[in-house]
């Protein structure tokens, strides 16, 4: 693949990942009364692991020395990105709406901008900061529904605070993956995701058993199984592969800017799936977010 095509494909992958995660937020909210949060996380990643194993068992064995070399770093990254983040997201969905989940997730670029500078020495350019500022203005248009009065009356609940913890968790997952890239270098991307799932699912099992012991369970209906199927394939396998590839090619700060598009995708999916009308402020806010993304990621010259 040529050097000119690689960034474009990485951007396209990040856009698709954001769309998959916007759908995940809708699923989290729609099924918060039907599937307990740890159960949804455990079965989501168990399904992803079951799909991955036939494809990654051989590569993992062939690269077992690299996996051992990664050691505890691999386990920590899996605990952050596979186990903790998903549980926090689904717990947050019990007391807040889907659009709030994606709106709060847009705090990630700021967290990763600062973290990339402190941990990686990758301080973004002034153009990137300006792009982020434009995207934030577009986000405020979405949050306030085009009205300053609505923005001033905005209130938060416990689920919103849990989602902020999830954002910080995901930022650390992303930054550590970039910081320890040399430790993970010998593991192919698909095998790397398989290794993360192999570490993350056992970590989830003990908490899932505790949740079952507390009496929390779900009915294995077709509707519930379809929700697990979506989260296990699109929100786990596809989105995580594309995200990991994006931060490897573009860096943490640039890749995280695509999180501003999640509320836009949530609004579009809400229109397509739930029949929720798209208002003028959706177009204005979404356009500003796209403009900020283009401004913040555009290179000077060729």
UniProtKB/TrEMBL annotation:
Topological category with respect to the lipid bilayer: Multi-pass membrane protein
Membrane-spanning parts: 42-61, 73-93, 99-121, 128-149, 161-178, 190-210, 222-243, 255-274, 280-297
Keyword field: Membrane, Transmembrane, Transmembrane helix
Every EamA domain range: 14-143, 158-295
InterPro entries: AA-Vitamin_Transporters, EamA_dom, EmrE-like
PROSITE patterns the record matches: PROKAR_LIPOPROTEIN
Subcellular location(s) per record: Membrane
This protein's GO CC annotations: membrane
Domain of life from the UniProt record: Bacteria
Main localization category: membrane
Record PANTHER family: EAMA DOMAIN-CONTAINING PROTEIN (PTHR32322:SF2), INNER MEMBRANE TRANSPORTER (PTHR32322)
UniProt similarity note: Belongs to the EamA transporter family.
Protein's name according to its UniProt entry: EamA domain-containing protein
Native organism: Pseudomonas tohonis
């Amino acid at each position: 693949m040529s050097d000119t095509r690689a960034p474009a494909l990485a951007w396209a992958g990040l856009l698709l990942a954001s769309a998959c995660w916007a759908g995940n937020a809708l699923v989290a909210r729609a099924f918060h009364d039907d599937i307990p949060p740890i159960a949804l996380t455990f079965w989501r990643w168990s399904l992803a692991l079951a799909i991955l194993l036939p494809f990654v068992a051989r590569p993992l064995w062939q690269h077992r020395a690299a996996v051992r070399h990664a050691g505890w770093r691999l386990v920590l990254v899996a605990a952050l990105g596979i186990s903790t983040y998903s549980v926090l997201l689904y717990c947050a969905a019990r007391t807040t709406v889907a659009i709030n989940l994606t709106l709060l997730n847009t705090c990630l670029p700021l967290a990763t901008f600062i973290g990339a500078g402190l941990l990686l020495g990758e301080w973004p350019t002034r153009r990137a900061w300006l792009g982020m500022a434009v995207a934030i203005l577009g986000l405020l248009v979405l949050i306030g529904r085009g009205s300053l009065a609505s923005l001033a009356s905005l209130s938060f609940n416990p689920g919103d605070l849990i989602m902020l913890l999830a954002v910080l968790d995901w930022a650390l997952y992303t930054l550590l993956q970039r910081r320890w890239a040399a430790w993970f270098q010998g593991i192919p991307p698909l095998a790397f995701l398989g290794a993360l799932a192999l570490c993350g699912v056992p970590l989830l099992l003990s908490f899932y058993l505790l949740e079952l012991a507390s009496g929390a369970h779900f009915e294995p209906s077709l509707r519930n199984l379809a929700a697990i199927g979506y989260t296990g394939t699109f929100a786990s396998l596809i989105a995580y592969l594309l995200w990991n590839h994006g931060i490897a090619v573009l860096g943490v700060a640039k890749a995280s800017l695509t999180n501003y598009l999640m509320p836009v995708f949530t609004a579009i999916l809400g229109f397509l799936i739930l029949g929720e009308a798209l208002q003028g402020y959706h177009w204005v806010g979404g356009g500003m977010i796209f403009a900020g993304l283009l401004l913040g990621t555009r290179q000077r010259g060729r």
